Structures are given as C-alpha cells and as structure tokens.
Amino acid sequence: MLKVILRRLVALIISLFLIASATFFLLAAVPGDALSAQTDKLPTAARKQVYRNTGLDKPVLQRYEITMTNMLHGDFGTSIADPGMTMHTVLKEKLPLSARLGLQQVLFGIPLGLLLGTLAAVYKNTWLDRSVTIVSLLLMSVPSLILALLLQSYFGGTLGWFPIIGWPEGSNLWLGGWSYTVLPTLAGGLGYIARYARLLKNSMLDVLSSDYVLTAKTKGLTGRRVVMNHVVRNAAIPIITSLPVTVAFSITGSVFVESIFVIPGIGQYFVQALTNRDVPIIMGETVLLAALYIVTLFITDLLYMAVDPRIKLYQN
Fold first, then answer.
1. Are residues 256 and 196 in the same domain?
2. DSSP three-state, residue 166
3. pLDDT tens-digit profile of 151-207?
4. What mean pLDDT do residues 60-89 have?
5. Domain limits at 8?
6. Helix, strand, or coil (residue 316)
7. Is residue 221 included in any domain, yes or no?
8. How many domains does the chain have?
9. Angstrom distances, CA of residue 193 to CA of 105, 112, 116, 123, 284
C-alpha cells in the first residue's frame, strides 16, 4: 500500500506540473492580458510602470520560471484584476459558500436518485419504472443553466416563494438562510437525481440477470434478501466510480448555478478570473481542481477494493 501511495504522489506532482505549465502557456498565447483594458487610457510611462509593478513586462519564459517557482512554495501570486486577493483568500472566503451549496445538492440529489433507481430496477416494467425513466430523461436533457433560470423565474419571480439571488454568509454561512439555498440546491440536485437513478437502475438490472442471483432465488431467498445481500453491493461499483468525483467537484462550485443566483462562491469567481485573464487566480483554481480530481481517482480505486476484494489495482 505504501508503494501505491508513493507512486500516486509522484504522479500527482508530475500531473500538476504539466497542467500548470499547459495552463500558463495557453493563457500567454491568447492576445491581451488582465491589464490591457485598465491601462488603455493611461499615458505610456504610467502604463509601462503598471506592467512593471505586476511583472507582466517580463518575457514569457521568465514569467513562467517565476510563476512555477512560486507555485512550488504554495504561492500563486496576487490577483491582477482584484488587488489584494490571493488563492489563500479565495479558499477562505469563497470555498465555504460553494462547499455548502455542493454538499446540499449532493445530500439532496444522490440519496433520492439511488432510492428511485433501486425501486425502478426492482419493479421493472411497472408504472414506477416508466415514471422514473421519463423523469430522469427529462432532467438529464435540461442543462442546469436552463433549469436554474426556470426555477428562479417561476418559484422566485412568479410565485415569490424564495429569494432569487444571494447566499447566506457570516453567522448564517452553514446553518442559516435556508430560503436562499432552496432554488440553487434544486437546480443542481435534480441533475444528480436523474444521473444516479439511471446509473443504479442499469447496474442493478445487469446484476439481477446474473447466475448467482438466479441461484439465490432458487434456494428460496426472499426478493428483499436477494436485493440487499447480493444485488446492491455488486451493483454499487459504478456508483463508487462516480461518487467521489461528484462530491469533490460539487464542493468546488457549480459555475452556472452560482452565476445565475449571484452566489459569491469559488465557481463564479473562477468565471470572473477567466473573463479578466487573471493568471494567478486561474492558475491557482486550475491546480486545485486538478489535484482534487487526481486524489478522488485514488480514493475511487481504494473503494473498488473495499467493495470487491477480487479487484487488484496493481500487480507486483
């Protein structure tokens, strides 16, 4: 196990280095920068001084060397478009807002989706199965952006039941301001319901038709015991594949939902950084997302072995 962890740690470092390098050079290749719009009307001398202060006057390779050296020390630099803002500040002020939104969406959508998927598989070809299938297809075909706009327009605008913008902050960050969280939670959580209902249903149907399930039934086991003891555990592998990545990325922010409901989370701030060509923030958030993705893949591998000991990740 120690060899596996060390191997993954080396792969993580190399991957993050390559991703950060690719991100830097792609941003450098695009015409313009974070200061071009702000300094267009400044005198030439003042404009050069602003670029000198931010280091954008240096050659690309020199900026790359400085950026990567600082990144190795955990310093992505200060935001160019938003002076005083660093990745440490972003994680402290923005990430908790996105984390609450993501966790609420996951806790609402995934358990309900798994329940509906189980019922649809057990009661195959019934009205319940057809209803779950139709609703899942409908929810999966509607982008979260459109769904958020529809919820905001009807439940927030027409009916006026919930606020249409804003998010709890301060003392209400984690346990208050629930009315502000309902529509954003639904906008993201409904997609999880559809995805996991279809995923578990299809996986369970494959398991239900397997030989060992048929053998268990012929031995006289009740349908409930067959499902709980044989079907659910073996059908869980596709869920385990998706679940860690879903949770990790939900915590780092839902870009469309945060933008529609004006939630000042890390997802919305990333969009602003991309619009402003704010290299330090873009680099920091990109490396953060990449690290989360790689770590969750490793967690997924470990969960594979916990669910099915027959699965071996590495051969000695």
1. yes
2. coil
3. 888 888 888 888 888 888 888 888 888 888 899 999 888 888 988 888 888 887 777
4. 81
5. 2-75
6. coil
7. yes
8. 2
9. 10, 6, 8, 18, 31
